[in-house]
Every structure is written in C-alpha cells, then in structure tokens.
Design brief:
Elements: H1 23-50, H2 54-63, H3 68-78, H4 92-108, H5 110-126, H6 134-153, H7 162-176, H8 181-189
Helix pairs in contact: 1-4, 1-6, 1-7, 2-3, 4-8, 5-7, 6-7
Length: 191
C-alpha cells in the first residue's frame, strides 16, 4: 500500500507487503520522519508569519516544562541553519512536546493567523493572487525562503509547492489555535 508522503500529510508510506520483519520498522521510520517534517513546516510557518525566534520558543518550552534538550532542538527549526536537525525518528513524547509548543504559539498569535486566513478567503473570492495583499506576500516570501533553506540542509527532498503548502499551513495553524487545538493536532498525525 502506498499513500501520500508529503510534509503536509502524515499518511504512512508502506512498501508493498512482504513477509519479512523489516517492514514495520521501515514504515514507522518513514511516518516518524514525515511527522517531523510536518511539525518543522508548522514552526517555519509560524516563524514566517509572526517572527517567532529561538528565544520565544525557549520561553514557551520552559513555561510548558519541556526538557531543555528538546527545546534546543525546536529552536534549530527557526535558526540560521534550518534543516540541520538530527536525522533521527521522532519519538512520541518528542512529538507531543512539539505539538504543545506549536499550539501554544498559535494561540498566542491567533489574531494574526485569523487575519491572514481572512485575507486568503478574500483573495480567493476576488480570484486574485495572494501576493496582491501585503501580509500574505510578505508571509509567503519569508516562508518560501525558509522552506528552501530547510531543504538545502536536509537529507530529505520535497516536491511540494511552497506557496500552496504555506497557505495550507495557515489554515492548519488556525485550527490548532482553537481551544481543542492540541488534541486535534495530535489526532491528525496518526502517530
């Protein structure tokens, strides 16, 4: 069975069925890497829209009682060398910590996220390009630059359109900024 393996989709990529013992490990690692990439992209989107930086992430992580080592790993996503992250599968507890930070930051910036999504809806209704609106143009420019830098340093490759991914991530962040955002986010990953 093969399903989508895009960063915005946390579906599992499983090689055609074989009768050996390596398949579950390979499938789990691919899914874990996809989840890691999805969470990294969400942090990049937050960084591109709101300007969060390493200090902001460290403060939020400390407030949420997240281990300093994991907090440092989160800061690498928005740092100078995006994508130079440890190439290790993401553990369940690490994913939960990432989600807590992302949802907390999304809640803190909910008004700005709502404004960006509202502008997206207006642009779509007017059938114009997102670049015609300053906030969306600046966000998409920053996101595309961060996206390219992330994959420049990463062993992964991407076939996504950064603009479409960036717009989709704004919608995701709006959902994650809601009161039940963390549980929605967790259930969307299918860890």
């Amino acid at each position: 069975m093969v399903t989508s393996a895009a960063p915005g989709n946390a579906s599992v990529f499983i090689m055609p069925s074989r009768q050996d013992y390596t398949q579950p490990t390979v499938a789990q690692k691919v899914q874990s890497n996809q989840i890691r990439t999805k969470l990294d992209m969400e942090l990049l989107a937050l960084n591109s829209l709101t300007g969060i930086n390493s200090d902001t992430i460290l403060r939020v992580a400390s407030k949420l009682n997240i281990a300093p080592k994991l907090a440092d790993e989160l800061t690498l996503v928005v740092g100078e060398k995006r994508g130079m992250l440890p190439n290790q599968p993401l553990k369940t507890e690490e994913a939960k910590s990432f989600i807590l930070v992302i949802c907390h930051l999304a809640k803190q910036n909910q008004a700005l996220i709502r404004r960006a999504v509202s502008l997206m809806e207006q642009v779509a209704a007017q059938k114009t390009k997102p670049q015609s609106v300053t906030l969306l143009r600046e966000y998409l420019d920053k996101f595309e630059k961060a996206y390219k830098q992330y994959y420049k340093y990463s062993e992964n490759t991407s076939h996504d359109d950064p603009e479409q991914l960036g717009l989709k991530l704004l919608l995701d962040l709006l959902f994650y900024s809601a009161p039940q955002g963390c549980s929605r986010h967790w259930s969307s990953l299918k860890f």
